[in-house]
Amino acid sequence: MAERPFTQADLDVLTQWDTPTICNGLELIVPERRAIGFTVEPMVCIDPKAKPIIGLARTGMIRAKEPPRGKVADRADWYDYVAPSDFPTIAILQDIDDQPGYGAYWGEVQSTIHKSLGVLGCVTNGSFRDLDAWAPGFQMVGGRVGPSHAHVHMVSFGGPVNVFGMGVGHDDVIHADFHGAVVIPAEAVKKLPAAIDLCTRREKVILDVCRAPDFTGAKLREALKRSGEIH
Which of 43, 106, 148, 213 is the most buried (most CB within 10 A)? Predict the structure, then answer.
C-alpha cells in the first residue's frame, strides 16, 4: 500500500461539507489551483440528497458510438482495478466519443457490480440509465441520462482522464456531490478543515449583517471590510 499523507478519518471528516465548500477551502490552501481541478459543466446526479462521497480515483476511458476499433480492455480486469484496497474508490470515466453519452456504460448491472465491489460511486461525462433499477447507495454524477448502451466498451483504464474539465489521475483524491466533483491534492486533505472554518467565519460576518432586520448598505460595507477578501 502506498504511503499517504492522510488517513481514512481525515477523508471521513470532509464528507460533512459539500463540494463547493471544499473548493472554497482549496482556494486558500492551493490558490494556484483556483481555476483548475474541478468539473465545469452541468451534471446530473442520481441522488442529490446523498451525502458527499470522497475516495481515490480509478480512471478509465470508454466509447459507445461505434463498435470497438481493436482490442478492448477486459472488464474483469477493470473490476479488479477499481476494487478498494486501503481506501474507498470512485470510478472516474471519460467518454471519448465525439458525442459523449451516446451510449450508457452505467445502469442496473454496472451500478450493482461496482457497489458490490465496494466502489462509492462514479463521476463521468458519459450517460447512465435504469434509474428505477439503480443500485441503492451507489452515487452517480454524470453527463446525462440516456436509454441505450449502444456499442459501449472500455478503451483503457489506469491513465489520466478529463471529465468536464477536471483532469484526474490514478489515486487522486476526489470529492463529489450533486454540484459536481473536485480533485483534492493529497497534501491538502488534512489542511482543509481549518481552511473551511476560516472561510465559514468570514462568510458569517457578511451573512449575519444581510439577514439582520436592521440591514443597511453601510453595515454591509463595514462587514465586507471585516470579513477580508472573500468570493
Answer: 106
Flag whether the pTM goes above 0.85. Answer: yes
Would 2 be classed as within a structural domain? no
Residues 67 and 134 in one domain: yes
Distances (CA, A) of 149 to 43, 106, 133, 146: 19, 8, 15, 8
H-run or E-run covering 62: strand 53-63
Q: Are residues 223 and 173 located together in one domain of the fold?
A: no
Could you tell me the end-to-end alpha-carbon distance of the chain, in angstroms, rounded to an integer? 39
Q: pLDDT tens for the chain, 231 residues: list them.
A: 678 999 999 999 999 999 999 999 999 999 999 999 999 999 999 999 999 999 999 999 999 999 998 888 999 999 999 999 899 999 999 999 999 999 999 999 999 999 999 999 999 999 999 999 999 999 999 999 999 999 999 999 999 999 999 999 999 999 999 999 999 999 999 999 999 999 999 999 999 999 999 999 999 999 999 887 666
CATH code: domain of residue 184: 3.50.30.40
Number of structural domains found in the chain: 2
H or E element in which residue 203 lies: helix 192-211
